Amino acid sequence: EVDPPAADAWFTGSDLPVATVRLDRDSRWVVERFPANSIIEDGDHVVAELPVTSERWLRTLLLQLGPGAEVVDPPEWRSLAAAAAAALLARYDG
Question: CA–CA separation, 19 vs 51, rounded Å?
Fold first, then answer.
């Protein structure tokens, strides 16, 4: 028998990459649904450090959030949402 870890411990101590994401009020559900290494209130925004299981997962999340989220760090993921949106639009551009 194996005891699964508690829900808030799944990614504890993992060596997954981390994205620091600034979320607006309507996107706050992200920190309630996904594990976060840290959550900092910043006025009307929340800045969260999210463990990233894959770049594809982060790209999908950012597309769902639209302008409600901004990757702050790492720099190589700052343009991920814009690139994903452009690629998606290009598929419908005929």
Answer: 7
